[in-house]
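Thread amino acids onto this structure.
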């Protein structure tokens, strides 16, 4: 397997370490965003790979997290006719309308930042708050672990 949920988890641990120990908050925030988005990408790709997607198919989606969510939404939950769209509604920030995985990973809602370019470069980073994205990475990783081996690629995708 090319993608690993364990690696995704290590990225989360690294982002948490920065979050809890850094005195330079602005650049720490950029690092937390970068690691959190990368963790989400790796988690989603690892789950899709376990459903039968080849690494070359996944690379075509680049770093577009909303595209990867769309692909997961085409997969079916094993033994049912249900699509795996529930990841989008997983709550990350309680009692906030935009506080779901689907909203936080939709790059157009983040003001146009598409991981990784606008996070790695430039003076201004336009994105959701680093802590929200760190929590999002945790929720995505847990959801993907819970569904690993429990999703099937749709026949027409």
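Threaded sequence (157 positions):
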């Amino acid at each position: 397997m090319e993608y690993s949920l364990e690696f995704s988890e290590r990225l989360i641990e690294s982002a948490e370490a920065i979050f809890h120990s850094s005195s330079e908050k602005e650049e720490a925030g950029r690092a937390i965003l970068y690691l959190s988005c990368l963790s989400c990408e790796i988690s989603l790709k690892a789950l899709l790979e376990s459903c039968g997607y080849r690494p070359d198919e996944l690379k075509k989606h680049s770093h577009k997290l909303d595209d990867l969510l769309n692909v997961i939404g085409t997969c079916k939950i094993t033994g049912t006719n249900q699509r795996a769209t529930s990841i989008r509604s997983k709550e990350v920030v309680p009692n906030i309308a935009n506080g779901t995985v689907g909203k936080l990973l939709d790059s157009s809602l983040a003001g146009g930042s598409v991981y990784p370019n606008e996070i790695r470069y430039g003076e201004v980073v336009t994105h959701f708050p680093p802590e929200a994205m760190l929590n999002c990475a945790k929720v995505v990783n847990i959801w993907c672990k819970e569904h690993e081996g429990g999703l099937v690629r749709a026949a027409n995708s």
